Amino acid sequence: MYPRSFKDSNGDGEGDLAGVISQLDYVKALGVDAIWLSPFYTSPNNDGGYDVANPRDVDPRFGSISDAEALIEATHARGLRIIVDIVPNHFSTEHQWFKEAINSLPGSKARNRFHFYDGRGANGEIPPNNWCSIFGGSAWTRIKELDGTAGQWYLHLFDSTQADLNWENNEVRLDFEKTLRFWLDKGVDGFRIDVAHGLVKEEILTDHRDPEGLTRALRLDVSDMSRVDRESLLSDVPFFDREGVHEIYRHWRKIFDSYPGQRMSVAEAWVHPSSRATRYVRSDELHQIFNFDFLIAEWDADFLKTAINKTLREVSAVDAPATWVLCNHDSPRLVTRLGGGEQGRRKARAMALLTHALPGGIYIFQGEELGLEDAAIPDERRQDPVFFRTHGADKGRDGARVPIPWSAGLPHFGFTSGEPWLPMPAAWESLAVSSQDTSDSYLALYRKSIAMRRDLFNTHSNTSKDDTSKDDTPKDDTPKDDTPKDDTPKDDTPKDDTPKDDVPKELEISWIETPHGVLAFRRGDHFILYSNVTDNELDIALSEADSDFAQVLASSPEARVQGNAVHLPAHSTLWLSRTKFTS
Questions:
Q1: So which residues are the catalytic ones?
Q2: Least C-beta-crowded within 10 Å: which of 69, 79, 100, 571?
């Protein structure tokens, strides 16, 4: 959930925590196990709340601490769990620590909490290195010292109002432990860790070979870069995925494990090669990591098959669950990524059904289940710092963050009684929740597929590595040692960086030979999936052994079992199960 765009309860045009509470029954009916909320903490909101000024309080635009407590209680009352964001890479320049830093002298204790350095050049007028902000422009901003002279520079890998924290400083570590415990004590079930791979920086005074190219390679909303160029630039990022981050998360894991019940963590860490992502989900670190391969995946059979195989092999190497993410608040919506309009929506329905049949946990971005695409935003209404820092060259992420349409026929589709913070397209009337009460709607497809995942694959919210993260496959009952590890430094090197060839049975899929452009696999002896990724209508014969399989769900009304074959219109997915199982 992106709370600012979910539901407004007080008419100020911005979603809030009370609005989330008001629509929890809708979320429950969707069939999910948990909700994850992007930041609702005290913030000047220069970057959608990811510029946190106080991580242990609620920004008035979203409500109050009592509203957060009510949301946690209401979520649990519906049998759902709640995950909140934590932003450890940076603080807002409105945070008390940063105010202390700029009002102290170079080399002070206050400045040591951040990355302050003298500039280069005769008068320090050149930044300490040539790194670029991921949002555009330089990653360094120069301050004025107390005497009014131009002074040191501070690092900000994102907006200039988001000063990067120095994780070699013990005060920083202790403060975040305090924040973790603050929200765990209030009953949250886990954390999504923003920029989880960014806490440790190396070569901080060394220039990069192509800083602007690296910046674009790191942006999920940049789609005009070739895969080869992107992978070349991502092969060595001096400020992401450094070895020191793993010691931090081993300590955090001890905190999570010290609490009763099931507390989980999921890392936002886009690393290269993707096999390095599994280092974050080793048994004494975090529980899940987002799968960025799927977040940027093309609707291409070869790419998808390779990405699926690679993901399942890699997570099996560390006994972790797979995750599948099709879009989020930082990336184009799935329908837009696949071409937009009805064709993009047709491909998106097929890709969603393909994804929902895979072993592991799925993450759904609000509005994805409605088939929303990125909205066109007039430049004068844009708010993303990416747009401003690139002087409009990059439009930013606002299009994916437009508020949810709830009720057709109401002003602003019932999101707010005021003026929404971003404009909502009039064409969304047919996509509003109230317009999708038919059995063949986009929303109905998501509700059915999530429910069938439980029935077909026995998914439930209590299964995972260490029984704390969301895997959709039953595990054995062999007791596991959850004893917190000691503080002795450990070797961060994985036992084997090469993914195992043997995939555990719960992660197994068996590919079926098909014509080029068609994906088909089995899960166990009772489920088969077919996806037609081509522009052509196809009929594929079923083997005699599969003659007792029947259709249970399809992304297109034209997809069906026809005699002893499956009929697949262009860009469609079909689920089959044995007749005896579905009857």
A1: 194, 268
A2: 79
Residue 392 structure tokens: 């409009």
Walk across the sheet containing 190-193 and list its strands: 34-37, 81-86, 190-193, 264-267, 288-289
Give dist(CA 517, CA 514) in Å, integer: 8
Distances (CA, A) of 368 to 78, 81, 294, 365: 22, 20, 15, 5
Those residues with Cβ within 8 angstroms of residue 151's Cβ, 6 or more apart along the chain or in another chain: 106, 124, 142, 143, 144, 145
Other residues' Cβ atoms within 10 Å of the Cβ of residue 352: 24
SS3 143: strand
Strands 34-37 and 81-86: parallel
- CB atoms inside a 10 Å sphere around CB 122: 7
Q: How confident is the model at residue 296 (pLDDT cuts 50, 70, 90)?
A: confident
Contact call for residues 450 and 461 (beta carbons, < 8 A): no
Bridge-based pairing of strands 162-164 and 34-37 is unpaired
Q: Which helix (H) or strand (E) holds 72?
A: helix 65-77
**560/563 Cα distance (integer angstroms):** 10
- Coil, helix or strand at residue 227: helix
Residue type present at position 335: V
Measured CA to CA, the distance from residue 424 to residue 569 in angstroms comes to: 32
CA angle 490, 84, 507 (to 5 degrees): 60
* Cα 446 from Cα 356, distance rounded (Å): 9
Report DSSP state, residue 138: B
Pairing of strands 264-267, 190-193: parallel
Q: Which two tokens stand for residue 539?
A: 């009929």
Hey, which residues does 530 pair with through a beta bridge?
520, 574
pLDDT(581) > 70? no
Residue 305's pLDDT is 96
Instruction: For residue 416, count CB atoms less than 10 angstroms from its CB and return exposed for 0-12, middle for 13-18, buried for 19 or more.
Output: buried
> Of 478, 573, 486, nearest to 530 (Cα)?
573
Closest-CA residue to 275 (of 297, 292, 251): 292
What proportions of the chain, in percent to the nearest 5, are helix, strand and coil? Answer: 30, 15, 50
pTM of the model: 0.89
137 and 67 Cβ atoms separated by less than 8 Å: no
In this predicted structure, what is the pLDDT of residue 224? 75
CA 279, CA 272: separation in Å to the nearest integer? Answer: 12
Asked if residue 295 lies in contact with residue 220, where contact means CB atoms within 8 angstroms, the answer is yes
When pLDDT is averaged across residues 431-448 and rounded to a whole number, the result is 97
User: Sign of torsion, CA 69 72 75 78?
Assistant: negative
140: nearest Cα among 109, 123, 163: 163
List, in sequence order, every residue forming a beta bridge with 120; answer none if it has no partner.
126
Tokens encoding 532: 């037609």
- Among 194-208, 391-405, 435-449, 481-495, the range scoring the smallest mean pLDDT is 481-495
Give all domains of the chain, ordered by start, each with its CATH number: 1-87 (3.30.750.90), 96-164 (3.90.400.10), 509-583 (2.60.40.1180)
Token pair 């009720």 is found at: 407
Q: Are 472 and 355 spatial neighbours (Cβ–Cβ below 8 Å)?
A: no
